[in-house]
Amino acid sequence: MAHVPAERCLAIIELLADGARSMALGEIAERLALPKSGAHRLLATLVDIGWAEKEPDTGFYRLTMRLAVLGQQFYVGTGIPDICQPLLDRLAMQCREFARLAVVDGYSLVWVAHAQGASGGLMYQASLTTNTVPLHATASGKAWLATLPTDQAVQNVLKNGGLKGAEKYGPNVIRSIEGLLRELKATARRGYGLAFNEAEFGVTAVAVAIRSTDGGSAQGTVSIAGPSARMTEKRIEEIAPLVLRIAGELSDLWPLRGRGGANAALQHSVQAA
Description:
- The protein contains ten helices and seven strands.
- By secondary structure, the chain is an alpha+beta fold.
- The protein has a five-stranded antiparallel β-sheet with strand order 4-3-7-6-5. Strands 1-2 form a two-stranded antiparallel sheet.
- Strand 1 and strand 2 form a beta hairpin.
- The chain is globular.
């Protein structure tokens, strides 16, 4: 392939970005199944262009802050902090629970923003160690998958690790493709995803897909999660319309890029309020 060096450089960046770790040349080569000499050349290139640096005392490699700076610039450019965060804050305060926004990233869904609406007492704070959404185990994942053709939804789950590792999740996590398909049909029918003790024990969540107004595919999800002891069926019936309403407002603002920039979209949001 013509772009193998670029792909391998990106693989090194992704590896070093996981946990902001420092790693030895040999470990990097082993983890990525690269010849040690090839890994050394790629790392030397990344050091030369300012993406990585070599620790003088250990000889280990780590990323510079360049990735973080560019990531922050891109994040601000999407309009999420200026446009989406105020809506997420409002939803969290209305529901008095933990709100989250996720965006579609290829065949994955990634959490990018959150807001805490609970002010005391029993309070939920996400404990999952990754920003990548477990599609089969979360209300957000179900809400997105339910907007996709069945074959594509199943493929996305399989590409994200499938249904393995049920012991990492709550007792009600889906354990079969048949169970997943039944749940996606129910999600599409009701208009929002639900998760009871699935991603995490003792946590219930409600999520709605964000869809662009041009009739395109879903762009992300917005969700509310809280302690199952408080998130009863009656409470879910009260919260679901609020989540649906915010998802509609976010849909009106999507896509954030290509509509005159964040300022124009923010002005539109203020006028619509």
